[in-house]
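User:
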Amino acid sequence: MDEIKAKEIFDTAQKKFEKNEDEAARDLWLQLLKFYPKNLSLLRNISLTYFKQNKLIETENILKEILDINLKETNALSMLVLVLEEQDKIMEAKKFIQIGFDNNILSEHWTIKMNIMMPMIKMSTSIIEKFRSDIKKFINEILTDKKNYDLNIDNHLIKPPQFILSYDQFDNLEINKICVSMFRKIYPELNKTHTIQNISSSKVKIGFISEYLTDHTIGKLFKGIILNLDKKNYDVKIFHTEQTKKGSILNDFISAEKEGSIKNIFLPKNFQQKQDLILSEKLDILFYPEIGLSLQLYFLSFIKLAKYQVTSWGHPETTGNNSIDYFISSSLIETKDYKERFSEKVILSDSLPMFYYKPKVKNLLKEDQINKTNIYSCPQTLFKLHPDFDKIIEGIQREDKNSVFYFIKDPKKTLYKIFIDRLKKNPKIDLDKIIFLESMNWEEYINHCGEASVLLDPLFFGAGNSFYESLFYGTPTISLPTNYTKSRLVLGAYNQIDISDLKLKPIVNNIDEYIDRSVAVANDENLFELKKTLQTKAEKNLYEYNKSISDLDKVFKKIVN
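Assistant: Predicted structure:
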């Protein structure tokens, strides 16, 4: 192929790529690659088309080709680490980071990245303990060394380990504290202070800030609070990020702004500009529904941008961050010694701190679809499933020979393969009775929960939003709460709807009880009546529960007064 023709094809592909016609662009570049197999521009572009389509294995293979040709391709190397991390190939990701160090092509912040990485799917409890120990050791080394760090959030963004650490059986207060100390050391900009000049007003000026105040768990959990706070008493702002995706909940917030009840503010990408924009609103309260899901907002929470900074159970763990003043939970959730597990001052609402809208399902299930037995489902993100959960699968299969288990594949279809590999290590688990469903839309998900006989709450970090959706049909969720908030959200909801009259209580005290109760509920001849009872209780005391708004009003007034 002559150069003129090749350039013509390349440019045509580039135009298609810019129009998001990724497959068409890739086909043309692959055509050229047959004639120019070592062309780095072609390989780079092909890798981008795969990455945009979440074809991670294909992206990985092309990036490795690039590095085989030229190891100095820094962008390819950093992208490869990201792609490997997305597939939970943590040890391989660390290997390539080390290659980057050995060849002086990666900057120092990659050292920190490498040492605080850990897998999402844990193969054993001993592996969890090893990673935790190594991370703690590394962080303490950073804190005690004499080195002056000067990393920048915009240019050297490092994923904190707290999010993944949350899903294990441990109290994370101390490790979260030392993580905060480390980040304050390596990112000096996190230590800046601002003078908060609140303007006297009859209204409480409150801002809600999250990347996920749209069609996401966080949007579903907090939409009702934002829309139903009395606007006579509250001046409400919502801070979205440049990463916030379009969706019906975001549209609801935009409509509310048109009606004059709230104000939506879309934050710029730049870290300092985010701060300046929030400060200009002179807030009494800046409310982070979750801290840890969004990288930039995690670090933003280090800097006081309002008189009071508050978080809650969108991510139900303490931050370990002294810039967060309050954690809002509920007396329905916490144990008597809850204060010991938080760096924040905890304020307990009398009801659950949310106003949850009842799901609207068009294609309702029929009675015979709801009244099925032997169907056990855990429709949760797979990285919530601790290795000890495998004992529950084994036990239920042993006690109920007709049992069928359902899980949901992760969108990128990488984690479920690792999860299966873990299950294969237990010869007592029958993989033929385990079904992995493709990702479902919202209504399909709720209907799946309705068809299940019983839902299985993950150990140590339980369900939240998914539990409220599942109660649309009243399907019982078996839950084993620990002392930690992250495992007690289902218990809190059960406490609010009051299940004291149920014969088969879905709250258990240990794994053996978990197994026995799951089998008993799934095979109960009165299962349909149990579902209808829970459905009625949810409609009365869970969905659109006005008391939660009045209780939160008391909480906010307590904070500002």
